[in-house]
Amino acid sequence: xxxxxxxxVVVSSEYPDEKTARKLTLVAKVLQNLANFARFxxxxxxxxxxxxxVGSEIKNMKEFIKRISVRDRxxxxxQF
Length: 80
Fold this sequence. Notes:
The protein has helices at residues 2-11, 18-35, 51-69; strands at residues 71-72, 77-78. It is flat. The protein contains 3 helices and 2 strands. The protein is mainly alpha-helical. A two-stranded antiparallel sheet has the order 1-2.
């Protein structure tokens, strides 16, 4: 699901300008790293300023992934 979301964010042609497209690309990069529990390194050194945020949100991301991965049998639907 995350791969789909990031893909849509990056390739959409509905952006008003190039600057907005770049910002959304950076948001997608942060989401991808957070979902992979990875910090930015040498490859994307310009993004290292986001490592504190990624590190502080890993616990919340793990909880989110756990919650969306468990089926609620009482309601017979997936809980988000």
